[in-house]
Amino acid sequence: MRVFLTGASGYIGSAVARELVRAGHEVTGLHHLEESADVVRAAGATPMRGDIADPATYAEAAAGHDVIIHLAADPEDPAAADAAAVDTLIEAARSHMIRDAHF
Question: Which residue in 1, 10, 55, 89 has a CA-CA distance of 20 to 30 Å to 64?
Answer without folding.
Answer: 10
